[in-house]
Write a structure and sequence with these properties.
There is one protein chain. With 187 residues, the chain is mainly alpha-helical. The chain is 70% helix and 0% strand. The protein has eight helices and no strands. It is elongated, with a radius of gyration of 24 Å.
Length: 187
C-alpha cells in the first residue's frame, strides 16, 4: 500500500472514527436517556408511560397535590419496595388504594358505588361524585390520568421503569388520601 492509499483510507475512516469517539464519550448520558424511554412505536400512536406520568406530575404540582412524605408511611414504603421488584405490580397495587378510597368516599356521601353490571366499582364511585359536584375538576382529571397509566401497566406489554412506578405510587397515594380527607365533600 502506498502513501496515497493510506491517506485515502484515513480520509474514509476519519468520520466514522470521530462518531465512535463522541458516542463513547457521551455513552453515560445516552444510556440515561434510553433508560427513561419506556416504549417506542412508529407514528407516535402510543404514548409512553413516563411521558404521561411527567404530564401528570406537572398537573399535580400546579394543583398542590403531591406530598413526598407519603414515601415513608407504611403503604408508601411497601409500594416503593415493590416498585424495585415489580414496577407494573406496584402501579396496579397503588391504583387499588385509589379505588378503595374513592368507594369509601362515595359511600360516606351516600352515593351509589355500583357500576353497570351491579358490581362495586371505583369508577362508578368517582363518576357519581363528579356528577354530584363533589370533586374538583383537577381531582377528577388526576383520577383519569392515573387510571390511564394503571391500564397501561396492567394491560400492555410495556415495562415500566422502577422510578416511574415509585412516582406513580406516590401520586396514587396522595389522591387516595385526598378522597379520605374529604369523604363526600368538595375538595
Amino acid at each position: 500500500m502506498d502513501a496515497g492509499q493510506v491517506l485515502s483510507l484515513i480520509e474514509i475512516l476519519a468520520w466514522p472514527f470521530t462518531v465512535l469517539v463522541i458516542a463513547s464519550a457521551l455513552r453515560p448520558a445516552v444510556l440515561k436517556v434510553i433508560a427513561r424511554v419506556n416504549a417506542v412505536e412508529a407514528g407516535g400512536v402510543r404514548a409512553e408511560f413516563g411521558a404521561i406520568l411527567l404530564e401528570t406530575r406537572q398537573t399535580t404540582e400546579e394543583n398542590g397535590f403531591l406530598s413526598q412524605s407519603r414515601a415513608y408511611d407504611s403503604k408508601g414504603g411497601q409500594l416503593q419496595r415493590l416498585a424495585e421488584l415489580s414496577p407494573n405490580g406496584a402501579v396496579v397495587d397503588a391504583w387499588r388504594e385509589v379505588e378503595l378510597a374513592a368507594i369509601s368516599a362515595a359511600l360516606h356521601a351516600g352515593l351509589s358505588v355500583r357500576g353497570g353490571k351491579g358490581r362495586v366499582s371505583g369508577n362508578a364511585s368517582v363518576k357519581e361524585m363528579q356528577t354530584k359536584g363533589l370533586l374538583s375538576q383537577s381531582t377528577y382529571e388526576l383520577y383519569v390520568r392515573l387510571k390511564e397509566l394503571r391500564n397501561k401497566a396492567a394491560h400492555s406489554s410495556e415495562v415500566i421503569a422502577a422510578a416511574d412506578a415509585k412516582e406513580y405510587a406516590l401520586a396514587a397515594l396522595d389522591l387516595a388520601s385526598k378522597f379520605r380527607e374529604h369523604p363526600g365533600g368538595k375538595d
